[in-house]
Amino acid sequence: MKTSLQLLTVLLLVSTFSFGQDLSKQIDSLIKDNYQKNPDVGISVGFIRNNEEYYTAYGNLNAESQIAITKNSVFEIASITKILTSNLVAQAIIDKKIKADDYIDDFLPKGYVLRKNLKNKIKISDLASHQSGLPDIDFGKLIELNPQQPINSVTKKTLTTMINNCSELIDYGSYRYSTIGYTLLGQILEKVYGRSYAEIIREKMIEPLQLTNTLTKDFNVKNRTVGHNADGGIQEFLQWNITASAGLVKSSASDMVTFLKVVLNEETEIGKAAILTEKVFYKDENREIGLGINIMTDDKNTIYLKSGDSMGQSSIICYNRAKNWGIILLLNQRSSKMRQSLLNEIYEKVLK
Hints:
The protein is built from 11 helices and 12 strands. The two termini are 37 Å apart. It is globular, with a radius of gyration of 21 Å. It is of the alpha+beta class and 352 residues long. It has helices spanning 2-37, 81-94, 124-128, 139-145, 156-164, 179-193, 197-206, 244-247, 253-263, 269-277, 336-351, and strands at residues 43-49, 52-58, 75-76, 227-228, 234-235, 250-251, 282-283, 288-289, 294-297, 302-309, 314-320, 325-331.
């Protein structure tokens, strides 16, 4: 009887592994087809299912070097940074440093002074779910001033002036995507932990998970991809500044799969924090939002996802906790349409 049970266990493991390989081949086929149609757009993809990792990549780091993109190539993950920040916020909640429903007033750094009618109004969860009603950075104007480094002119003074001059939360309680909300969350984390955002993310994520390709201030590495704007022109990586917690982390498919692995493991600190971020904090007829993450449901699945677009790259991360899979797509050109179409096709044809 014992031998039969052992044989059954082995067969189940082999079956699961073969099924995972089959999924990875299907995903690779779709990615390869997309690359053949768009040979100027390099791509790196990581997929995890039941703790098994799979990778595929096409294209080169840049047109001159002819060095192939791999699972370890560094991309701008842009607003996927917000998932990392919201997980750090959730960890702070678990650490009892803050509460999701705390008002932000007492947690803002020195220099911020909310108007009287705004006091005890905005919660930490409001910032994290994009419903604070606060004004945001005018990226269109900044891009006109400096198309390569539009956020260079955003400073602590810029932000404090914007917040201190805000006299009304016009759309408080309604969804409006906010960069400044996540910038403030980064500053709140810095205040409650007494360290910089770069130090916090290194201590709580990068070093424990050994994310060797996840970079903050210094990203001058040989395995860095070259970004391209929507027209195909070369685009610089955005430099680290005060808005870092909203979208300036750089990473790779391999590191993001490692992150997904611990997110899907409910016994880890990051996994426990991720479950908190998956709670619905905002809902309307068009969307459900957790802390920094979009929640999509159909009749069979609930998936959690976040996209990112820098000036020269596009990315998207997605996972299904119940079915224990996750995927990361990284493109070396700004193309939100391409990365969304790719994820939709992979989901509909393979993962659904």
